[in-house]
Amino acid sequence: MIMIMNKSIVKNTVYKLTCSIFIFCLLSVQANAMAQQQVLVTVEDLQVTETDLEMALRSSPFYTQFNTMNEKQQASLRGDILKRLVISRLFSIEAKNSGLENDLEFKKEVNDFHNGMLYREYMNRLRSQIKVADEIRKQWKTEYKDNHDAYDAAKSTYISTQYRTLYEKKLKLFRDKYHVIVFDDRVSNKADKDTIVLEADGGIKISMGDIIDPSKNNDDLTKDQILEKIYQKGELLVVAKAAQDDGIDVSDRVEMYKKERLPGLFIEKKQQQWTKDEEVLKKYYREHPEISFIPQRWHLGMIVLKNKAEAKYILERIKKGESLFKLAGEYSIDPYGREHNGDMGWVREKSGNPEIENAIKDLENGKPGRIVKTNKGYVIATIIDRRPGGKRRYVSMKDKVRQFVINEKMHAYLQKLEKKYNITWNLINTLDNNKS
Question: Range of 169's domain?
Answer without folding.
Answer: 104-245
